[in-house]
């Protein structure tokens, strides 16, 4: 039986579709997976995200269980290592809410070794601390968020509203997927983001237009 472990901290159906595509699970009559939400208690929003994930998962996959790291890096690291030792049949690990990746690659020797042996690991976010895991091939792909846009677009829209402008009720957020093929571009972005001006240039995006 082939097993997949999913560490789900900020899970959405859209993000899951992207990471499952990146994972490209091997064919199997039945496969197991495990989900790891990050909070120690089941918040309503988190439950919704888990339900969203279930709607896009293959019927050949079975959720084997859940675990939580509560946004604790050290706890997340130990959980990842323990899960991999306890589940030698895992072929994939989806880490959405990638707190363990805020450690160093040396802190996750089992994850690194298993990835080198064929374990497919996908994650969430492309923050600077996570990129070495993509560079060395431990993480095959990571789905990001619009960090710059959260602040930039919010201020632009608030300024426009004060001037009487109207905006769409829903503003889409970009979800860049970072892989070994383009991780160098994102390393450069973070290298150039040591100052506010540098970050503005690195992550520049067009303002949302009024409706």
In the predicted model, the low-confidence regions spanning at least 5 consecutive residues are 8-27
Assign the CATH architecture of the largest domain.
3-Layer(aba) Sandwich
What name does CATH use for the topology of the largest domain? Rossmann fold
Helicity level, as a percent range? 25-40%
Shape: globular
Give the rounded overall mean pLDDT: 79
- Total discrete domains: 2
What structural category do the secondary elements indicate? alpha/beta
The CATH superfamily label of the largest domain reads Response regulator
Give the CATH class of the largest domain: Alpha Beta
What order do the helices and strands follow?
EHEHEHEHEHEHEHH
Q: Major beta sheet, specifics?
A: 7 strands, mixed
**Main sheet: strand order:** 3-2-1-4-5-6-7
Q: Count every beta strand, where a strand is a DSSP E run of 2 or more residues.
A: 7
**Tally of DSSP helical segments:** 8
Q: Please compute the radius of gyration using only Cα atoms.
A: 18 Å
Distance between the termini: 52 Å
Strand content: 15-25%
Describe the protein in words.
- This protein is α/β, with parallel strands linked by helices and 211 residues long.
- The chain folds into 2 domains: 2-143, 3-Layer(aba) Sandwich (Rossmann fold); 147-202, no CATH class.
- 39% of the residues lie in helices and 17% in strands.
- The protein is built from 8 helices and 7 strands.
- The chain has helices at 13-23, 44-56, 73-86, 109-116, 131-135, 147-162, 183-191, 196-202; strands at 2-8, 31-35, 61-66, 90-96, 120-124, 141-143, 177-179.
- The chain has a 7-stranded mixed beta sheet, covered by helices on one side.
- α1 (13-23) crosses α2.
- The model is unreliable at 8-27 (pLDDT under 50).
């Amino acid at each position: 039986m082939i097993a997949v472990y999913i560490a789900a901290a900020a899970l959405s159906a859209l993000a899951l579709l992207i990471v499952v595509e990146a994972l490209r699970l091997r064919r199997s009559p039945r496969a197991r997976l495990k989900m790891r939400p990050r909070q120690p208690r089941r918040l309503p929003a988190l439950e919704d995200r888990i339900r969203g994930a279930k709607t896009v998962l293959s019927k050949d996959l079975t959720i084997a269980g859940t675990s939580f790291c509560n946004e604790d890096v050290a706890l997340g690291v130990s959980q990842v290592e323990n899960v991999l030792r306890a589940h030698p049949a895992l072929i994939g690990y989806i880490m959405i809410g990638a707190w363990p990746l805020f450690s160093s690659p040396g802190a996750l020797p089992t994850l690194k070794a298993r990835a080198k042996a064929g374990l497919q690991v996908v994650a969430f976010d492309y923050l600077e601390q996570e990129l070495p895991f993509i560079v060395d091939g431990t993480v095959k792909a990571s789905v990001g968020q619009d960090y710059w846009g959260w602040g930039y677009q919010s201020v632009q829209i608030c300024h426009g509203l004060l001037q009487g402008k109207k905006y769409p009720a829903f503003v889409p957020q970009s979800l860049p997927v970072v892989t070994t093929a383009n991780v160098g571009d994102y390393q450069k972005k973070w290298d150039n983001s040591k100052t506010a001006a540098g970050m503005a240039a690195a992550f520049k995006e067009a303002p949302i237009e009024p409706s």
